[in-house]
Amino acid sequence: MSEKIASVNVGCISSRKLKWFAWGTGGLIVFIGLLVFVVFLVLHPSKPSFNLEDVTVYQFNVSKALPYAITIIMQVTLSSRNPNSRIGVEYQPLHVYATYRDQQITMAYLLPPTYQGHKEPVVWSPPLTGYDMPISPYSQQSLDQDWHTGVVLMNIKLQGDVKWKVGTWISPNYHLYVHCPANIRFGDLNNGGSNLIKGQPVDHCDVEIAS
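Below the sequence we write its predicted structure tokens.
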């Protein structure tokens, strides 16, 4: 009987040790996670800056009858810089596309996941294409007016998810929205478009990050 009691006591003690060890390990992990999170909040990461470095249009055609549609082949160069000296940026797959008056006129190009280190620049040069992309009659009228003035304002948009990285800690996903306006200047409008047209970025890209 005493041997059975002793074995039960040993088993209880071992079970208690395992529980305390598990609780201690879990608490330590939570503490380290909270510590890194507090450091992250104290550092207060600044959002990355984006610039539209280049826009080259190889083809731009617009149908003159219903249904109105745009065909465009272009390539853009976007650069990003991480202003943080202690926080890295992990870009999840990002989508890049062009719009005219808030209407998408190219297919979205998928950029691969990219890590951006402290104070580090990143450059992407995706091709953007759209074949017979429909536009509204209102946009068609506006486009006709823009063509007569010789300048068409487009917007290069980039969106997707980003994560912040401090040491081994990685934040949850944040939503990234980038908006880069650019003027496309046409020469001979009578040909319905021109080849190898260089666009001119209007201003710095607008960057927004939301939870």
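The longest helix spans residues 2-43.
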